[in-house]
Design a protein that fits this description.
Layout lengths: L1 H6 L5 H13 L5 H5 L3 H8 L5 H19 L3 H5 L3 H8 L7 H11 L9 H9 L9 H11 L4 H17 L42
């Protein structure tokens, strides 16, 4: 999950899966083994993701940091309070908020919401955020409107990704979208609509 979070930045997940399969077949998905892979060989394994030299640099930076600061033990990192673990991850070169939060939610099981490009697009098109809203602003809106649980955050984020891939594309497919009946509003997250967004299984707005 951690390696995938680093590799998936600006890359389709199917390409990341291919690179992960290369690493898994060679028994390299441990911090120690992956850290000792020669750079050129690592780049060859990562070639399916594109930007493979950049990805190799970021992955090696993370692995070096994990070894020096945490003795290769992800568990030690993830046992830290959420905000402290997040602050630590953000100090690593190439690790931004989305990548750090993906690691914390999906690998560390911390209750923190991941905001990605699909999330921003969906919220913008429904008028629920300002166009230039920051990552932290969008994340805080989810933290305020939803119960703070790891299970709900991971499911909600996964459904937004599916919605973005299926309906809210660059050219949107609006009429069949399960969010079609939610009224468009202006400005940031309106309190009158928060109840509509509290759970991804609400029958009224998710008939599918």
């Amino acid at each position: 999950m951690v390696v995938g979070a680093i590799l998936t930045q600006q890359v389709a997940w199917r390409n990341v899966e291919q690179a992960l399969r290369h690493l898994k077949r060679r028994g390299l998905l441990t911090p120690q083994r992956l850290r000792h892979v020669p750079r050129r060989r690592l780049e060859r394994y990562l070639r399916p993701v594109g930007f493979f030299r950049v990805k190799a640099t970021r992955l090696r930076a993370f692995l070096t940091w994990l070894h020096q600061e945490w003795g290769d033990e992800l568990g030690q990192l993830f046992r830290r309070p959420t905000l402290k673990a997040r602050q630590a991850l953000l100090q690593v070169s190439g690790i931004g908020p989305e990548t750090a939060d993906s690691m914390l939610l999906y690998a560390g099981h911390h209750p923190i919401f991941v905001v990605d490009a699909y999330t921003r697009r969906i919220l913008e098109r429904h008028g629920l955020i300002h166009r230039q809203a920051s990552y932290d602003t969008m994340q805080q809106q989810f933290h305020t409107a939803l119960p703070t649980t790891e299970r709900l955050f991971s499911e909600y984020h996964a459904l937004l990704v599916r919605l973005g891939k299926t309906y809210c594309r660059t050219v949107p497919q609006c009429e069949p979208c399960p969010l079609w009946r939610i009224p468009r509003v202006r400005g940031v997250w309106p309190t009158t609509h928060q109840h509509q967004l509290q759970h991804p299984r609400t029958p009224r707005h998710h008939p599918a």
